[in-house]
UniProtKB/TrEMBL annotation:
This is HD domain-containing protein. It comes from Candidatus Curtissbacteria bacterium RIFOXYA1_FULL_41_14.
Length: 254
């Protein structure tokens, strides 16, 4: 018990230090972007977000998995390509905004990568310190509500089109063990596998969250199925074609 308390104390101190350092690194970069400025998103905003991550890479958290960088790159590319296809159908979406939001959706993992249920809270705190506008933060996927806290997301009509794209990009922006982009029909197994990675690495206060995560995973798969169907039926966007385009597309510098 004493050892656990000491670990918690050390982790909290480390979290505070990393939060302050990342805010210092990123404030000047973010204030030049539409994440802070009230204007339309442009390609240079995406580049500046990449610049922020590049600076952080010089001294990352020791438990941050290398796959994190690949994930935010792939999720960003998925979001951008979905955005472009929706835009070509006449919808009012900004592909650069979707790409930037997708790249920062898991920003809390830079600070607390090994605490699965703490990263969203830490990420929100960092975005506040970086000066990201409230209306921009509200465009992110409402993770808490998906998890059943502060509301309950049960169907896609509770999400904006942009949030649907971001959720889809987050889950599709992954690779399997053989190095290929994940296929939609493989998502269920991968999400369960990634949740299991954290089961032996949580304190007692987080164990209830692990149990709830199983139900959340099943719900996300159902929502993802509905998003896929809507993208195909309503907007004529084929998921396999987007996946192929992502695999051929050029990655931003991250």
């Amino acid at each position: 018990m004493v050892q656990t308390a000491e670990i918690l104390h050390e982790e909290r101190a480390d979290t505070r230090l990393r939060l302050a350092r990342l805010a210092e690194i990123g404030r000047h970069i973010f204030e030049q972007t539409a994440l802070v400025q009230e204007r339309e998103f442009r390609q240079d905003d995406v580049s500046r977000v990449g610049e922020f991550f590049e600076k952080y890479k010089q001294d990352p958290h020791p438990q941050l998995l290398p796959s994190y960088w690949e994930h935010i790159d792939l999720a960003g590319r998925f979001a951008r390509i979905f955005g472009k296809r929706l835009q070509s159908k006449g919808l009012q979406v900004n592909p650069h905004e979707l790409e930037a939001l997708s790249m920062i959706h898991d920003i809390g993992r830079l600070i607390s990568p090994h605490r699965y249920f703490r990263t969203n809270l830490v990420g929100e705190s960092l975005l506040l310190r970086l000066g990201v506008r409230e209306d921009v933060r509200r465009k992110q996927v409402p993770e808490k509500q998906l998890f059943g806290r502060g509301g309950n997301i049960t169907n896609i009509n509770q999400l904006t089109l942009g949030q649907q794209v971001l959720l889809f990009a987050d889950n599709m922006g992954r690779k399997t063990e053989d190095g290929n982009l994940i296929r939609f029909d493989q998502l269920g197994d991968l999400i369960e596998q990634q949740t299991r990675q954290y089961q032996g690495r949580v304190f007692a206060s987080e164990r209830f969250g692990i149990e709830r995560q199983v139900a959340t995973d099943k719900k996300i798969i159902l929502i993802m199925n509905d998003i896929k169907q809507r993208l195909q039926d309503q907007y004529g966007i084929r998921i396999d074609e987007v996946r192929e385009e992502v695999s051929r597309s050029k990655a931003p510098v991250v």
